[in-house]
Amino acid sequence: MTSTSFLDSDVRGVEVVVLADEGPLPDVPEAASALAIAEKTKAPVISPAAGRSPIVFVRLGDEPGLERWRWAAASAAGLVASLEAEEATLRLPEEAPPEVAAALVEGFRLGAYRYLDYKSGADAAEIRLFVSDPDATDSLRGAIEAADVRADVTNWTRDLVNTPPDAKMPAALADRIAEAAEAAGLRVEVWDEGRIEAEGMGGLLGVNRGSLDPPRFVTLEWAPEGTEADAPVVLVGKTVTYDTGGLSLKPTKDSMDKMKADMAGGAAVAGALVGAARLGLPVRVVGLLPMSDNRPGGRAFAPGDVLTMHSGTTVEVMNTDAEGRLLLADALSHARSLGPRWVLDAATLTGAQGIALGERVAAVIARPDEEAFAGRVRRAGERTGDLCWPLPLYPHYADQLESDVADLSNIGGRMAGTITAGAFLEHFTRDDDGEPAYPWAHVDLARPAFLDSAYGYRPKGASGFGVRLLLDLLGEDADG
Q1: Same domain assignment for residues 369 and 222
Q2: Structure confidence by residue, pLDDT tens digits, 420-464
Q3: Core-most of 213, 278, 329, 387, by most CB within 10 Å?
Q4: pTM above 0.85, yes or no
Q5: Which among 91, 150, 250, 447 is annotated as catalytic?
Q6: CATH of the domain at 15
Q7: How far apart are CA 101 and CA 317, in angstroms?
Q8: For residue 459, what are the domain limits?
Q9: From the annotation, which residues make up the binding site for Mn(2+)?
Q10: Are 92 and 184 in a shared domain?
């Protein structure tokens, strides 16, 4: 989809008008009647204006904060797409503040997204968006341009997640991410299997043992001038390119058939790094992406195996479908060497997350003495619409990970599955003396990352959840 442009002349294509609850109606003859219809139907209204292109009127909904503007614009985008329009002009509400204008652009572009790469004869779903405001201030233009970038990298992330598994095995996915990252100005380093072995990443290598496709470990870094010596923010993303469950095989329906999305955490981290570079955020950020698929090959790791992790911790494998935490653990251990300011990992980690919080809210987990970090993530979610809710991490949850033969088991039983997965990860964020090595939070976005049905500006399939959340957190750091 092409970028957003400002327009200082006539309307181009379909005109989009957002009808606010209060304030003056826009200076469009049909606005009053359209508002009356929209109030009754709660749906967008098309007015076939005489002598000019159609006008789409959309009413604000009841969502909180800026989400009501995003959802309204997404609703309009869906209607514009149904008209097969190639261009649309967004009329901003009178004296709209920059954050409202940005939300409208973000919502429209996210709502217009379609994944059509494998649809025979389908044209690319591109609607060129114009903003009608010839007198826009610098702050308004800057806000809209930033919103355009956020939407663009979120849609790119959606493409990565929606891509079929056979087209994104680790080597191919690493190349695809590296190409976009380097184009944005990021430093990229890709470790092959030999380097991963040399680094002692036994969790990643164990998960990969049943695969015909070797693993990769990708490091992305954004360090603008003046930040090179700063302690970095480190983002870690689970990047399991396809998950059968390994020898602990998943059922197909409503499980394995969606596992191309098991790299959505890594995709969100990659999208956030590319976005940070394109936005020019003055903060040093490192992204770590451990990549493998998980298949039941002849040499696949098995329940009862013991893996020696990057940190030296031994882990008894009791379920090969709890694989994501193994490769994340290696990355979190490696993060210690970077001297991070703080670390956040994003992962499609547990089905229990969806049982607890549903498909619209991710779980965020932090240590009990770092509740402020979890609260910061929650507030970023409220601002962006990538909603997160904290779950507790009391010390007793780690007791469920005890093993008879190794330092840890990779599963903690049925109870509190999302939390015990977080407790497993937390173990690898500590130094050799058992003390926390850095501030850390874990975001389990298993259900929000890939949807069974669309809502708001989020399509069925890959939602891009987490990209704008992470960019908001990075922007907050950049602002000091």
Answers
A1: yes
A2: 999 999 999 999 999 999 999 999 999 999 999 999 999 999 999
A3: 329
A4: yes
A5: 250
A6: 3.40.220.10
A7: 50
A8: 168-478
A9: 238, 243, 262, 321, 323
A10: no
